[in-house]
Amino acid sequence: MNIFLKLSLFALLVSFASCKDSFVDVDNPTAISTSSYPATVSDLEQLLTGVYGTQHATGIFGRAIGPYSTYLWDHTTDLSWQGSPNWIQMGQNNALPSDAFLLQIWPDLWRGVQRCNTLLAGVERVSKTASATDLVSVNLIKGQALYLRAWYYYYLTTFWGETFIVDGAGGDKMGVPIVTAVADNLAATQVPRATVKQNWDFIIADLKAAETLLGTQTWTAATDKHKVTGWGVKGFLGKVYVFTQDWANAKTYLSNVIASSGKSLVSFDVYKNMFNGQNEFNSESVVELNLNVDLTYGGVDLSMGSMIGTLIAPSYVGPTGTPIASAWSNVFPHAKNIARFGFNQGHYFPQGTTSANIANVDQSYIAKSVAARANKTVDPRLWVACLQPYVDSMVVAGAKKPISHYLDVTEIDMEAWSFRKYINLAGTELEVNRSNGANILWLRMADIYLLYAETLTHTGDNAMALEYINKVHRRAYSLPADTPSAVDYKSLTDVTKAPDDGLKNNPLRYERWAEFFGEFNWWFDVCRWKIGPQEAAYYQKIRGGTIQFDPATDYAQPIPINEITANASMKQNPGY
């Protein structure tokens, strides 16, 4: 659905709403006057469309969230492309204030905040003259605007807050500025950093206000599917309470979503394809970012699609048996991730192979891999998240092509697989002009279940915590989620598929890693559990060099140098 049709107009309106005569003294005869706009519910809906659209701007889910940020910091990816030094540095946990990708993410998140504030100001204006009927719609718009502002602040706080709150500590560290109105002069842009606790309190206050306004609101019209529901707000609040270790409130909200939202885990057959433009807005989805294939360039908020698939696009076997990139194909799953799913079937090329060619594949490896998949001796989610070279295939111009060793990975003995989540299974990314339409499953019931399980371990119910971990685990093995099974973990310290000390005897952490691999979640778990050094020790290196994780500085990213220059009140994070 074309929910972003009027974004160009919205961008024009915001640019004028953000300025006064002291900024510009040139009349624009084509501009809508801010003295008369917004004036109606329809005007507010137009502005709301732009606020949602900003979620997939270039610096957010249009391109940067994942391949240019979290995927690098948590080592979801390694880099096939070695031509960008700052990309390599991010993968080594050595981001710099001048990092080109952070210079995209920071302003786009703040643009989301600005657009929320512009909309909220419009809401107050329209409310003064709205009829009782219109006021109902205005309040629903206000609830969504507050939710969205909390959403943008969630990323600003988790990316740039000096630390997470752990065991009640860290709340006095530096967060990000709190801005509730659009600046109309230079002085209003010189805002100092709030504390981490103030940021989280602000997020919670916005979400609580949104909860009051939205209640249990759901949306049935096709043109409204992208809008957050009341249950989405409650689920987000539950997640925030877990992140701030407010276990009592987390339990209340998460249990409410589980018991009363009507949401539940889908079957494995639905789950395995719901990240590829199929099975959208299903019963497991709590918050979903709606995208569509867009034949414009993509990767900006004026487009309806996302370019993430272009960056992570698979490599396939070409006419001569060697790899071909299906799009940009810049990043691929870090080889250590394959083993973490329990895959130990050897390698597709025999030792001593010097050329990545399908003719050199060890056929006994193929047989063992097929058997492991059929017998589920490897976590089945490996093949939901990744495409296996010379076993899986993809569609290119209507024809199936085997997946290859990832292009430009010269280490022939490396497990150079391809991503499967958030790529186009029906063709290459270039066939949709680099603008993938797969929806982003931002919050789903598997997340709610595992957050609830974590909460229960902190509120004295380990038995029920284990049950909710097992519900997610059973579904991964195509079993009924609510029925005890042979694959169940027997304790909270039972053995998992992971070979490393960090996840080997921790089913809760393993399930969060395996279930959401490639879904932009793991970095935040690493930060809030403070397991960066252990993760760095497991992954060791990327193709561009050794991972160098410093727990004193590397949980927070550097404030971009442009912001330090523009805002005299801004302080840099320690260590940068």
TrEMBL record:
<feature type="signal peptide">
    <location>
        <begin position="1"/>
        <end position="20"/>
    </location>
</feature>
<keyword id="KW-0732">Signal</keyword>
<dbReference type="Pfam" id="PF07980">
    <property type="entry name" value="SusD_RagB"/>
</dbReference>
<dbReference type="InterPro" id="IPR011990">
    <property type="entry name" value="TPR-like_helical_dom_sf"/>
</dbReference>
<protein>
    <submittedName>
        <fullName>Starch-binding associating with outer membrane</fullName>
    </submittedName>
</protein>
<keyword id="KW-0998">Cell outer membrane</keyword>
<dbReference type="GO" id="GO:0009279">
    <property type="term" value="C:cell outer membrane"/>
</dbReference>
<dbReference type="InterPro" id="IPR033985">
    <property type="entry name" value="SusD-like_N"/>
</dbReference>
<feature type="domain" description="RagB/SusD">
    <location>
        <begin position="307"/>
        <end position="576"/>
    </location>
</feature>
<dbReference type="Pfam" id="PF14322">
    <property type="entry name" value="SusD-like_3"/>
</dbReference>
<comment type="similarity">
    <text>Belongs to the SusD family.</text>
</comment>
<feature type="domain" description="SusD-like N-terminal">
    <location>
        <begin position="25"/>
        <end position="241"/>
    </location>
</feature>
<keyword id="KW-0472">Membrane</keyword>
<dbReference type="InterPro" id="IPR012944">
    <property type="entry name" value="SusD_RagB_dom"/>
</dbReference>
